[in-house]
Write a structure and sequence with these properties.
about 500 residues; alpha/beta; Amidase signature (AS) enzymes; eleven-stranded mixed sheet; 16 helices; 11 strands; globular; binds glutamine
């Protein structure tokens, strides 16, 4: 493997700025790596060799001409396949979109293009971001680069695996209930969900609009900060966008790395997110990191959020309700494939039904049915209405504890990467995998996974830091300290030593 690929995005950015390497050289190295190993990982649905190299050449030319460029200009990135990219196939890992080429760019795509980051391709995911293992993709599952018999997490398994296996230093994911943080946990990468509204959702194919948020997947906390700063900020095209300046996250991380002190910091350990049901190795790693934070000067307080117990229940009512409404647009009329009924009259309604029957996978259908049910007249109050009340109680729990502490911490997921097929037969077992990540989405607060250990089976483990809404800055500071106190997990991914074709 080309040694360049082991470097962080910011290190590569410095090398590009110094003229030690060119973006074409770096982008070609990423594309070569993808060609050499992606048949083993299946992280990409689409690779855009020409587009990526054209951007790289353009950035190199602009740099040579002495133009002032964005710090990350020329550093390659991969984009989850539910973020639209003009003229580049966007599938959401579903059959229903066929080879749809979006006629416009998502706001984050526009920002990436303006900053001059070559987009090497679109990454694999669970269909429409519904799942925890990337097994629900119409393009086949992505494999975990730590152990290809195991899941890379989901729904953003492709982005996480691409970064973990050194195919690309940066990737974008989307997190509705944990789809950035949980794949990061099982692949030993850093994955962050920003405060709801901090990054525009314009052009993110909606799953559950009140929960969805785009965020970074990287191998270092500083890279995640830099990418978030690049994609964040107010967007008039997103009605839920926060109208506030983007905090100086990268600078905060870089200065924290220099200082490295926890004095005065209050860290809450959430009782409900670290007890029963968590694997021993995961709990041991969590406790060890908490102990290191204490030794570094942080005050550790145990806190309780009593309503978190109901997060999963509330999420699996609110999310499908929004899914059923958002996915109504895939009807064979506007985008993607159109399937006609094999017999009987060809009416608009029957074409829609045949298209949706053929185009959607089982998990998507399950959620649409659940969502229409909980929104139906007779059940609305009992299910959807109650879930919204619970959501408010969870938000109040967080408000209450954040009046006592600066950040909350927990393991990011209850167990290390499981084997393919282990949870597909039982959707509830799969849903349970997100117990620790879902509360942040319900409350709109930011959360990040920082790899903190490798299990006795040789699988990565991660530590979650949660902060109050708009508290992304303090979250990044603490994440950076956790990273400094932990072994280099990402650097131990066995894919680094794979023989290349
Ligand atoms: N795994 C969760 C689900 O299946 C979260 C998905 C996500 O964040 N997109 O809904």
């Amino acid at each position: 493997m080309n040694e360049l690929l082991k470097k962080s995005a910011l290190e590569l950015a410095d090398m590009l700025a110094d003229g030690q390497i060119t973006s074409v050289e770096l982008t070609q190295a990423c594309l070569d790596r993808i060609d050499a190993i992606d048949d083993r990982v299946n992280a990409f649905i689409t690779v855009d060799r020409e587009g990526a190299l054209a951007t790289a050449a353009d950035v190199d030319a602009r740099r040579a001409a002495g133009q002032t460029l964005h710090r990350l200009a020329g550093v390659p990135i991969a984009v989850k396949d539910n973020v639209v990219t003009r003229g580049l196939r966007t599938t959401c890992a579903s059959r229903i979109l066929g080879d749809w080429e979006p006629p416009y760019d998502a706001t984050v795509t526009t920002k990436i293009k303006e900053a001059g980051l070559p987009i090497v391709g679109k990454t694999n995911m669970d269909e429409f971001a519904m799942g925890s293992s990337t097994e629900h993709s119409a393009f086949g599952a992505t494999k975990n680069p730590w152990d290809t018999e195991r899941i890379p997490g989901g729904s953003g398994g492709g982005s996480a695996a691409a970064v973990a296996a050194y195919m690309v230093p940066l990737a974008l994911g989307s997190d509705t209930g944990g789809s950035i943080r949980q794949p990061a946990f099982v692949t030993g990468t850093v994955g962050a969900k920003p405060t709801y509204g901090a990054v525009s959702r314009f052009g993110l194919v909606a799953m559950a609009s009140s929960l969805d948020q785009i965020g970074p997947v990287t191998r270092t906390v500083a890279d995640a900060a830099a990418l978030t700063e690049l994609i964040g900020g107010f967007d008039p095209n997103d009605s839920t966008s926060l109208n506030e300046p983007v905090p100086a996250l990268t600078q905060a991380v870089e200065s924290v790395a220099a200082q490295g002190s926890m004095k005065g910091l209050k860290v809450g350990v959430v009782k409900e997110l670290s007890g029963e049901g968590y694997q021993k190795d995961v709990i041991d790693a969590f406790n060890a990191t908490v102990e290191k934070l204490r030794e570094a000067g942080a005050e550790i307080v145990e806190v309780s959020c009593p309503h978190l117990e109901y997060s999963l229940g509330a999420y699996y009512l609110i999310m499908p309700a929004e899914v059923s409404s958002n996915l109504a647009r895939f009807d064979g009329m506007r985008y993607g494939i159109r399937v006609e009924p094999t017999e009987g009259p060809v009416t608009a309604e029957r074409v829609m039904a045949a298209t949706r029957e053929a185009g959607f996978g089982d998990e998507v259908k399950r959620r649409i049915i659940l969502g229409t049910h909980v929104l139906s007249a007779g059940y609305y109050d009992a299910y959807y209405g109650s879930a919204q009340k619970v959501r408010t109680l969870i938000q109040r729990d967080f408000d209450e504890v954040f009046s006592q502490v600066d950040v909350l911490v927990s393991p990011t997921a209850p167990e290390t990467a499981f084997r393919f097929g282990e949870k597909t037969a039982d959707p509830l077992a799969m849903y349970l995998y997100d117990v620790a990540t879902i509360p942040a989405n319900l409350a709109g607060i930011p959360g990040v996974n920082v790899p903190n250990a490798v299990s006795s089976e040789g699988l990565p483990i991660g530590f979650q830091v949660l902060a109050p809404a708009r508290g992304d800055l303090v979250m990044y500071k603490v994440a950076s300290l956790v990273e400094a106190l932990s072994d280099d997990v990402a650097g131990q991914c066995p894919a680094a030593n794979w023989e290349e074709k």
